[in-house]
Design a protein that fits this description.
It is built from four helices and four strands; from the N terminus they run βαβαβαβα.
Length: 108
């Protein structure tokens, strides 16, 4: 079982869509969180420790993770997806972009 964590700013659109996209997929557990104080679920060191692979949506999310949790990130696989905050939750274009980018790293 591979555990993946998706990170965006508020955990309402991009990372939540990615989590829902992988929900129920065999061999994968997915969670999502945000970096901003007003996030639906604020990322914690516990989230980082749980994950095998962490997918920040943007470079700024990766920078925030590295700033807040440097020790917890040691040995973690981090892959920035480079998906801008241009979509609504479950937007079909967002889903297609996520599928294409995640297929490079996961067997989906």
């Amino acid at each position: 079982m591979i555990k993946v964590l998706f990170i965006c700013s508020r955990n309402r659109r991009r990372s939540l869509t990615a989590e829902k996209l992988l929900e129920g997929m065999s061999g994968v557990q997915a969670r999502s969180a945000g970096t901003q104080p007003q996030a639906r679920i604020l990322v914690t060191e516990g989230h980082i420790g749980w994950a095998d692979i962490i997918f920040p949506m943007e470079k700024s999310h990766l920078a925030k993770l590295r700033s807040r949790f440097p020790e917890a990130l040691v040995g973690k696989q981090l892959v920035t997806l480079h998906i801008r905050d241009d979509y609504e939750f479950m937007d079909s274009v967002l889903v297609d972009e996520l599928r294409a980018k995640l297929a490079q790293h996961l067997d989906i």
